[in-house]
Each structure stands twice: as C-alpha cells, then as structure tokens.
Amino acid sequence: xxxxxxxxxxxxxxxxxxxxxxxxxxxxxxxxxxxxxxxxxxxxxxxxxxxxxxxxxxxxxxxxxxxxxxxxxxxxxxxxxxxxxxxxxxxxxxxxxxxxxxxxxxxxxxxxxxxxxxxxxxxxxxxxxxxxxxxxxxxxxxxxxxxxxxxxxxxxxxxxxxxxxxxxxxxxxxxxxxxxxxxxxxxxxxxxxxxxxxxxxxxxxxxxxxxxxxxxxxxxxxxxxxxxxxxxxxxxxxxxxxxxxxxxxxxxxxxxxxxxxxxxxxxxxxxxxxxxxxxxxxxxxxxxxxxxxxxxxxxxxxxxxxxxxxxxxxxxxxxxxxxxxxxxxxxxxxxxxxxxxxxxxxxxxxxxxxxxxxxxxxxxxxxxxxxxxxxxxxxxxxxxxxxxxxxxxxxxxxxxxxx
Length: 403
Ligand SMILES: [Zn+2]
Ligand SMILES: [Zn+2]
What we know:
The chain is α+β, with helices and mostly antiparallel strands. It has helices at 2-36, 66-77, 131-135, 168-175, 179-187, 205-212, 229-241, 246-255, 263-283, 330-343, 361-371, 389-402; strands spanning 57-60, 108-112, 117-120, 126-127, 137-140, 149-154, 157-161, 197-201, 291-301, 304-313, 318-325, 353-357, 377-381. The strands form 4 sheets. The chain has a 5-stranded mixed β-sheet with strand order 11-10-9-12-13. A hairpin with a 5-residue loop joins strand 3 and strand 4. It is elongated and about 105 Å long. It binds zinc ion (ZN) (2 copies). The site of one zinc ion (ZN) has 9 residues, from loops. One zinc ion is lined by residues 141, 143-144, 146, 162, 164, 167, 169, 196.
C-alpha cells in the first residue's frame, strides 16, 4: 500500500510538471496571439514610469491673532474692517472661526464653492476643512513654492500635486517632450507625469506590529489532546508539508494508519501549532545576509483570491517575511518591506540590497524608507526576459526564491 502511494505521488508530481509546462506553452501562445492583433487596433502600452520627485517645503502655519490684524488694518486704512455682507447667509456651511487667526465666523466667506475652499477676510488665508489644515502644516512645491494640492487619498499615503502652470518643474518636463509626445499629452494628459508629485505616508508602526502577530489563538491545548505526539506529527506532515486538505488527511489517517480522526480536530491542531511556532519564527536570532529578495503570488483561501508575499534572504535561504492578505495595496507591500527590515536585523547592514519585481510601488516604499533614514539599494527585475544588467544579475536570485 505504501509503495502504491509513493508511486502515485511520483506520478502526480510528473503530471504536475507536465501541466505546468503546458500552461507555460499556452501562456506564450496567448501572448503571441494578442501581439498578432496589433493590426486590428490593439497595441501594447507601456506603464507610465514611476519617479520620486524629492521632498516638498514644509511650512508651519503660525497662529495669528485676529485682534492684532484688525488693529493693523485700522491703523493702515483708518477705518474698521467690516464682516462679510452675505446675500444668502444660509449658503455657508462652515460655522466656526478662522482656524488661523481666530476671526469670528462673520469674516469668513466661500472662496471656491466647488472645492469647498474658504477664505478669511482678516488674515487672507484660504483653507479647506481637511487634515492638513488641522495639522497646521502647509506643503509647498520645492520648485515654485506654491501650495501643493491634495489630489488622492490612497491606502497608507496621500498624494499631493503642484498644479501651478508656471512651475519650473512642469515647464522643464514640458519642454523635454518631443512633438509627438506633446500631441499625445494634449490628447491624454493622464498618461504623462509632468507635475511635481509628493506622497505623504501615513503609516502606523504599532498597528503593523499588532497585525503581524495576527489573531492566532490556540483552538486546543496541545498538552491535552487524545492523540500521541507521533500521531500529531503524522497529521501535520500530511496537512502542512504535503498540503493535503483536512478531509484528505483524515482519510489517510484512517485508511493507512487506522487512526480515527475527523477533519475539524486536524484544523484545530494545525492552528494551535502555528500559534506556538509563530513567536519562535518571529523572534529567532537569524544570522541574515545583506541581500533580501521579495515576491508575491496569489492563493485561494476559502474560494477567495488572496495575496501572499514573501521576503527571503537569498544567500542564507531563509524566508524572512510571509503574509497573506485579502487585498493587494501599497500599504501591505510596504509592510512586508518593513517587517524583515525592522524585526529580523539587530542592526541594519550598511549595504542592504532588496531585489523585487518591477512594480513601481516598491520605488514608493524605497522613497518612504529613505525619508525615515532606512537606506537600502533597490534592484528591480522587470518582466520575464533579461533586458537590463540588473535583470541579468539578479534574476537568478528571484528564481531561487520562486523555487
Ligand atoms: Zn483668519
Ligand atoms: Zn511647483
């Protein structure tokens, strides 16, 4: 019986390999057939290149006093500054004072109805009721000193943009466009990145640490289970090492080892063992090299697509980070960069190398870490063929990881 199973297992592995080759073959056919449709109007469009534009100017808003300002106005103009005369008072939704100088509500009017921008007549400052103003920080473009506009709130970061048409950054980029590109730009401006962009990260390290330990509670106390340690070892071998389902593991335990167990205790055992093992893996003093490699793939958890991220030490062959997420966003990727960096090294190596795929979001992560003085060199292996020296030099490491 054992022999039949081992023969079957070898045969299944062989089948699996052949199937994988077949999928690769199909993949290449699908790609070439999509390339063939070039004449019918579809064409390959390259990704917009990701770039990091340097730090903005941070300006702390000084708290002004509206009484002083009103006095100044009186001395200068020899008359009192009158509150805003409203034709339709109900139109102004904002009921508070000026957040910058404290001027009463009567001095505030709507400067831009669409963007809900308000203007204070006393201090002449505009403001919108968002987080920036509450934090009393103004972000300014380092090229033209104009106020940056908050354009998008993404998970984990906020994007600011300098929309000023006379900004030297924008004008420089505009001048560098070829006439063809310029035509394209006029037609599809979103395909080009000409304006200064700044990403402000909003990362809560405490939250990350808490999340990383997950909600692993032991479902059963392993000291009190009715099976022997040997049986537990067998169950885990089938369920974890061989990746069999809990029901199949239960069937094998019964058919081959004559141990009667249903699928639920198997899942409970695995859960308890993972809760026990996790802190050991997390806190083990690994002797890591200075070369890390990251990759992601997807798996199905209860029929739903989930993303699994790995970071590994390519020289010591140790997986330094492994997490499954239901969503795929920057925050998670950043998190996976942070985790091995912060937890696994007692002291960060001076020349830390991180090898990842071509996803531009890793550049954002790199820029973020640079801003908090965690420096590493980022190497990106792009696509499936070696087009650059980085691809050629570092692809083998990524392949080691995939294996
Ligand atoms: Zn004011
Ligand atoms: Zn600018």
